[in-house]
Amino acid sequence: MTKAIENLRKRKPTGGKRRLNRGRRGFERDNYALEPVVGPLAGRVSRRRGGGLAIGLVTADMANVADRSGKVSKSKILRVKQSPANRDYGRRGVITKGAIVETEAGEAKVTSRPTDDGVVNAVLTEQQ
Predict the structure, then answer these.
(1) In whole angstroms, what is the distance from residue 64 CA to residue 123 CA?
(2) Backbone angles phi, psi at 108, to 5 degrees
(3) Regarding beta strands 53-60 and 62-66, do their DSSP bridges make them parallel or antiparallel, or are they unpaired?
(4) Structural domains of the chain sorted by starting position, each given as residue range(s) with its CATH number in brackets
(5) Residues in CB range of 122: below 8 A, 6 or more apart
(6) Could you give the 3-state DSSP secondary structure of residue 9?
(7) pLDDT tier, 62 (very low <50, low <70, confident <90, very high otherwise)
């Protein structure tokens, strides 16, 4: 298969414009990226290949926080302190894997992928 969809912006060696010879297929379909922020729990359901469903978080207000002993408790998310994925995500409050969030239990590092798992799991970090 030619790279018709990706290379439409390029011209042919003769200078002519490239024309799309077919539409986008189902497996090439894409949605806008989810950027979960702090707020009342809300998710988006999307269909995966094979007919399965996946829930991605749009907003989240609670996290499953584990301490050093392994005990897990549900804690309210107060704010996002920083995110290693993007410096701007920390300012905008986007929850990503690896983000440091401030919860009622203390500072915690997010260990799940909220856009794919549909839940926020976190581990308490060491306090300096």
Answers:
(1) 8
(2) -140, 150
(3) unpaired
(4) 37-124 (3.10.290.70)
(5) 63, 64, 65, 66, 101, 103, 108, 109, 110, 111, 112
(6) coil
(7) very high
